[in-house]
Every structure is written in structure tokens, then in C-alpha cells.
Amino acid sequence: MGLESTFPPVTGPAWTALATGKNPGKTGIFDSLIRTDRQSLTTRLVSSRDIKRAKPYWDYLSDRGIRTGVVNYPFLYPPYKLNGVMVSGLGSDPGDEIFYPGKLRHQVLAPS
Predict the structure, then answer these.
(1) How far apart are CA 51 and CA 47, in angstroms?
(2) Domain range holding 57?
(3) What is the C-alpha to C-alpha distance for residues 105 and 72, in angstroms, rounded to an integer?
(4) What confidence tens digit (pLDDT) does each residue in 11-55 have?
(5) Is 3 contained in some domain?
(6) Hey, what's the torsion of the CAs at 63, 67, 72, 78, to 10 degrees?
């Protein structure tokens, strides 16, 4: 038996399952879009808040005092506080703050 992804792969549910070890039934993330409320058809992209609620492995490491870095993980915007660094990507707009801690921006984007 090999490793299997969720269906469909390369989606919000698959990336969340990879980060948490939980299937969509346990994370509550069934698509890359989430309805904003049950009475509306308005949707938004899966975000770091949704993934954090499902507790990804880097949060377990951070909670145990292990410095960790998460870079450009899909649907992980906005970045949030952890013991280490986080650089968001997918889901952010140009000009958004994508670095945690914020001072990391100057280190990464500093001219050489």
C-alpha cells in the first residue's frame, strides 16, 4: 500500500490533508473554496485560518519549542505567528504582508 492523496489532488483538501494528516471529513475543507455562510452562495479561498483550525504539523512543532519554517505553502495566507518563519504565497494579493515575522521581508527582499 502506497501513499494516497485526497480526491481531487492538488486542491485545498489535499494540501490541508498533507499538512494535518486528516481527511476532509475531519478538517471540514472539501474544496479550495469555502462558502462564507450556509445561507449564501458567496465563497472565499481556503486560508491559513482554516488550515490552522485543523492543526498542521508545523504548529505541533512550534508548540513544542521547535523552530520551524513554512515557505509558499498553498492556501497559507495570511501568515500567522509561530516559533519560526512563515512566508505565504497563494491566496495573497500583491502588496499584502506575506512574511512572519514582518521584519523577515527586509531580510528576504534586501538588495544584495
Answers:
(1) 7
(2) 12-109
(3) 14
(4) 889 989 999 999 888 998 888 888 888 888 999 988 999 999 999
(5) no
(6) 50
